[in-house]
């Protein structure tokens, strides 16, 4: 069971990492829904809350890939199992970060965000935040299973 959960988690983190690499290299598909949007100065239009840099996006991709590698190490995908307690706790900390992302900052992201009405906000409520909850539980299964 743990191995199956780990395989799914690795696949999801690798996929999301590859999407971020695509965006960092200039890809546009889906990028309009990847950044929170806030009302513009005139109040009617929604504008991105920030403009992610290519370097920052690559850093996110690298972080996601590192998480996938940590999960692989924990369950023995592609190498022997690493059962050291520090890896267990690092993966648990990442799970907590996933739960924190799902809860959000009470403004732009998470289940309790206040700024809504954008494509990002809808996807965040129905896809991104629930995915973070599922990944958090999956990471705990991998860490402690």
Secondary structure layout:
Blueprint: H1 2-24, E1 37-39, E2 46-48, H2 54-75, H3 85-103, H4 119-144
Helix pairs in contact: 1-2, 1-4, 2-3, 3-4
Q: How many DSSP-defined strands? A: 2
Question: Order of strands across the biggest sheet?
Answer: 1-2
| Helicity level | 55-70%
**Proportion of residues in β-strands:** under 5%
Largest sheet: 2 strands, antiparallel
Q: What this model shows, in words?
A:
The chain is mainly alpha-helical and 145 residues long. The protein has one domain. 62% of the residues lie in helices and 4% in strands. The chain has a two-stranded antiparallel sheet. Strand 1 and strand 2 form a beta hairpin. Helix 3 packs antiparallel against helix 4. The mean pLDDT is 95.
Characterize this entry briefly:
The protein has 145 residues and is mostly helical. It contains 4 helices and 2 strands; from the N terminus they run H-E-E-H-H-H. The protein has one domain (2-144).
Features:
145 residues; mainly alpha; two-stranded antiparallel sheet
